[in-house]
Amino acid sequence: MLRGLKQPWKLETPKHKKHHRRDIEPHSVYPDVPGVSMMPITVAMLSSGIKLDNLHGIRRRSKVWRGSTIVPLLNESFPAPPASETMPKAEGVLDALLQYSACDISDVLLKLEEVAEGERAHAGFLDGIGGVISRPQLQRSRKIIAPVFTVQFQPKAEVNGECCVPKAFESNIEPGSQWSDLVQADSIVVVQQPEGQKCAVVGGIHALNLQKKGVKGLVVSGRIRDIQELRQLNTPIWASGTSTVGASAESKAYATQVPLTVSGVVVKPGDIIFCDVDEGVIVIPHHLLDDVVKALPDHVKAEEGIKYAINNGLSVSKAFSLWR
User: Comparing C-alpha atoms, which of 30, 52, 26, 25 is closest to residue 41?
Assistant: First the structure.
């Protein structure tokens, strides 16, 4: 029998009793669902793949066997796990994604992305982007999500008369302008620094300006500095390295709101950045956003079903066969 799983339950009592309903706690993981039949279910029954819809029609009982597990009978070959109580009710599309982890979203992107033959699937993950730097209390929120605002840096000096990074587009930052003055509020800024440079491209001054501009976060594919100053800000920052040297040593901001390629992942204006303190940073292509939102509930349900099955005695292969 499946034991030790408790959830408050309400059952009908005979009408001649003083109270028409009473609260009990049988060994069950399911909330009360009016009209759903119930009966004891054993691990042997579940592992045999018995179709529970064949057992419908049994009336709800007025007594509970403490030695048995009472579960609702579903039209599935394995009972669904309980819905997570930690998932908030989200109103907007982006807020809805905060219910999930970066791993959940990457799993879905792995199925949705079209990968050319011979290419590697990235599932939106920005490899090499390190842990978050922010005020300690900010880490309690754990996740942020927002549209991207891109910034590309180029080498300050040319080597042998040629730029180290191919220029696929012209600079759109006017001479004398600073890139952090150009960002948009409520975005997550993604900065790309040329590979191999030892200087930092973001320090305390630009990070402070980003906070004043109202950006939600900063992701730097490159180096940052003034770490103690950055920790005093409200803007969470992810980066791939640090330095004590300022950007003027070898780098300069070249363009904003242009496509970037970070860790093999293309990041375009309009894409969505999902930053998870625990798991990392991923990019959701704008054209896949609706598909990701639609696919996530079923994906999470399947993952929880697999873990629920394993926790109650089934092998991984059997759990996969039932839920995947």
Answer: 52
Residues 279 and 145 sit within 8 Å (Cβ to Cβ): no
Question: Cα-atom radius of gyration of the chain, to the nearest Å?
Answer: 27
Q: What's the whole-model pTM score?
A: 0.70
Q: What is the pLDDT of residues 106-155, one digit of tens each?
A: 999 999 988 777 788 899 999 999 877 877 656 667 899 999 999 999 99
Cα separation, 57 vs 267, in Å, equals 54
The residues, ordered by sequence, that sit 6+ positions from 143 with a Cβ below 8 Å of its Cβ are: 98, 101, 102, 274, 275, 276, 277
Give phi and psi for 318, each to the nearest 5.
-70, -40
pLDDT tens for 197-215 read 999 999 999 999 999 999 9
Three-class SS state of 28? coil
Helices 102-112 and 289-311 sit at what angle, rounded to 10 degrees? Answer: 120
